[in-house]
Amino acid sequence: MASYRAIPPDANVRLAKKTSNLFRARARSTAPGLDVSGLTQVIAVDPEARTADVAGMTTYEDLVATTLPYGLAPLVVPQLKTITLGGAVTGLGIESTSFRNGLPHESVLEMDVLTGAGEIITATRDGAHAELYRGFPNSYGTLGYSTRLKIELEAVRPYVALRHLRFHDLRELEAAMAQIIADRAWDGEPVDYLDGVVFTADESYLTLGRQTDEPGPVSDYTGMDIYYRSIQHDSPRPRQDRLTIADYLWRWDTDWFWCSRAFGAQNPKIRRFWPQRYRRSSFYWKLIALDHKYAIGDKIEARHGNPPRERVVQDIEVPLEHTADFVEWFLREIPIEPIWLCPLRLRDTDGDRPWPLYPLEPARTYVNIGFWSAVPTAPGQPEGAANRAIERKVSELDGHKSLYSDSYYGEDEFAGLYYGGDAYSTLKKRYDPDSRLLDLYSKAVQRK
């Protein structure tokens, strides 16, 4: 509160954080940032109630390290270690439990929020601030910042047994995904975790995870072996693998999915000497930040006589039945591979669209599709041409796009997609009456 009051009244309130998982460039600010350095720990775990009270800027790395000794984990653990709980709730998060556990904000029982009005209020599903509880997800800090969250936890076992199923046809993969989600099982075995990777139109995989207590050898993808390469195989039978629960939760972090290859970290000759403590998403993100600051990549392209590249770093959701439609279009139009698939269904079925700023339909299955790279630009193309084409295709297929990266929507189009009718303006008037916080369009599209 003291830090909030120290920010000049005519300056927008912005977080002072050392790490971020956002990929939106932002205008510089000369005003002091909001000091959240004291909000980085787990406050308490109740193993009997299976709940945890957590400060808003606590990373999932620290949260999971605290809950696993109790045999518990958050219902959804986003893929990267330095994603914060507050960030996943206000900006959305997803992982391979989302087909059964929804999104991180759905496991929040209550949260304390520092609003734009400079008050700390407690928001719950049915309390006096229920509309803020509902409107907080996908608000990206434009309504306030969570200082404490009480969340549900679930029991987990020490190991995860994996089956990697190969598909030569995206329509067959889509059908298999639908069956697995409906049955919560495949070929007689339960499925606790589900995600997938598409390498090409005729090489794609679903990875099915099953929690187990059975002891035995486990794989390690924090050293020379690379997790996403372990998925690939030519056999008609699933490739099997086993990981500890901790290594499974962080299987994508060591190589930032597959993005570490851009830095040479997957080259065995380089990887051997790359310090293990730097094989993690937060370090690669720092390298990306340096590239953005000094345009290193564009300068290298220019030396080779190539145009600048357009950054295409996005996660989108489309209804399950449009998964193959989108992926086939994407593989034809956007030269990026691999891409990630992660199905989700909302847990909350209260009301038509219970989370107004990201209005997924209850009882409908969606698939998150993630792609993170850059594509060549063509002379005469407008800025963000590839991203804009993706936005149009997603809307055409009745989907939605996360806002952690670049967006190019017009203001009216954006409002129709993300403001939930009058929900957002009503919340802004109540919880940020003096506009101390940026509005969502200014932040997500105009990069202010």
From TrEMBL:
Q: Please name one Pfam family that this protein belongs to.
A: FAD_binding_4
Compartments it resides in? Membrane
User: The FAD-binding PCMH-type domain covers which part of the protein?
Assistant: 1-156
Q: Kindly give the membrane topology term recorded for this protein.
A: Single-pass membrane protein
Please tell me whether the keyword Transmembrane helix is annotated for this protein: yes
In short, the EC number is 1.3.1.72
Top enzyme class, one word, equals oxidoreductase
Query: What are the UniProt keywords, alphabetically?
Result: FAD, Flavoprotein, Membrane, Oxidoreductase, Transmembrane, Transmembrane helix
Q: Which InterPro entries match?
A: Cytok_DH_C_sf, Diminuto-like, FAD-bd_PCMH, FAD-bd_PCMH-like_sf, FAD-bd_PCMH_sub2, FAD-linked_Oxase-like_C, Oxid_FAD_bind_N
State the name under which the record lists this protein.
Answer: Delta(24)-sterol reductase
Q: Which organism is it from?
A: Nocardia tengchongensis
Give the classification, highest ranks. Answer: Bacteria, Bacillati, Actinomycetota, Actinomycetes, Mycobacteriales
